[in-house]
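To whoever is on call:

I kicked off a structure prediction for a single chain this morning and the downstream step that reads the tokens threw a length-mismatch warning. I double-checked the sequence; it's 514 residues and nothing unusual in it as far as I can see. Pasting both halves so you can look.
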Amino acid sequence: MNETTPTPAWTESRIARTVWSNLREDLLQDIWKFRPLPPVSAARLRQRPLLRRLGGRWLTHWLVGSLALFLLLTDMTAAPWERPGFLVLIFGLAQTLPLVLALFRPLGAWWVSLGVFLFMTVTSAWQGPGVLALLGVMVVVALRSRPRVALEMWAIGVLSVTMAAFVFHPGNAYVVFPVAIFSGCVLGTVVAMRGWWLARNRVEEQETLVADVRGKHTALEERARIARELHDVVAHHMSVIAIQAEAAPYRVDDAPEELTRSFGTIRESAVEALSELRRVLGVLRFEEAGSLGVPDAPQPDLSRLDELVQGVREVGLDVEIARTGAERPLPQGVELSAYRIVQEALSNALRHAPGSRVRVEVAYVLTGLGLRIVNTAPTGPVSPSPGMGHGVTGMRERAVMLGGELTAEPTAEGGYEVAAFLPAGPVEDEEREAPVGRRGASPGDVPEPRRPDGPVGLTKTGAVGPARGRTPAARADAVGRSENTGSGDPAESRGSQENPDSADRGTGRSEERS
């Protein structure tokens, strides 16, 4: 049987001991400890460059110093004429210097200010500036301490001044009450503002932390999605290697044993690599993916871009597409990433710019592929999006993965522009089986350049994407070089036939949009 220790009851003696312990901890220990008031952080002044240039980091110090100087001048001006000048200066400094001292040694400054005020009360030499100086010290200490300290300072100050007034000047004791009420209201307001400020800072820190975690989660989720999609591409190539390695010895009469053994090793390595890919894919797949009931299908490429644009048009978005340069088959990873970037940009335009006009530009240049998707300002009501911002992060991840770059930023007209460049070397002249599902090509045919099936917008004569920073002449030169490359020898301009992994790319698939 567990025994619980009973909680001691709150008695008068225990309450007194607790109050004394807190008072000694707050106001009697290390009262001369050096605790300078730090300047305002540069991060808080980042949005106020003018205030930062004017010394805004030391704004609190300037305010306290200015208040001390003002109270000193006011106290000296309001002093009786019969009082000697040096005595007026000493009394004024004694009341206002603790205000400056509070910036460095707050508790010691409060005790000094309270002692000076009690002395002035006993000698009937205190004035209004002296009250404001003591209150200013209490405010500075309250801003740098817990709320309990403000209550303790106020209680000690009111009790000590009341006793001194009743003992030495009972006729003027009535003044203590309104001063106590006024000082209590000021300190209460200061404590409330400090609590609000601290709560706001905590909320900002939590929001920053949540944003960082959310950004990392988004990046990891998008990378996993990219890995799942590229798995299909890599797995197909490994399957082709395994099949070709297994069939190669049978195509040669009396194949040497060393050749057969080498092809067997190649096939075993390819099959082992496929097994590893399946294990990795099993880790990357989300549990929800299996519940969607979506059958496995080849990953899309640029041959399905017109299909994508037509689907967006049917939804109600005005989209035009333009292609420049000599079209040629690109590596599957490049085509897949380009398709996904255009798909995400169109999805963002549907969500965030209803009623706008969208222009999709695809530029085939010598070193890769340029993309530019720009939409005008929305003409319909924009509903708030509950998403986590996967779109831009995913597009940028795809571009960086291929060694390219991507920019996404608002336009001066109120629209939005996504520009990307995906590097890809020229397709080598090697024998590949042309896909059956792409434009109806046969294994022996050389694929013709793809053109949009739907209406084609105005064709841009310059490269897009990263070439945005180039001059128009440079853009035209880049496209000219690409077109010149495409007008030479068919074996060099068109490259080899397309990869066999796209044999079923013409099949339909409900594409996932982030």
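Update from on-call: the warning came from a stale cache, not from the record. Cleared it. Sanity check on the structure: The chain has 15 helices and five strands.
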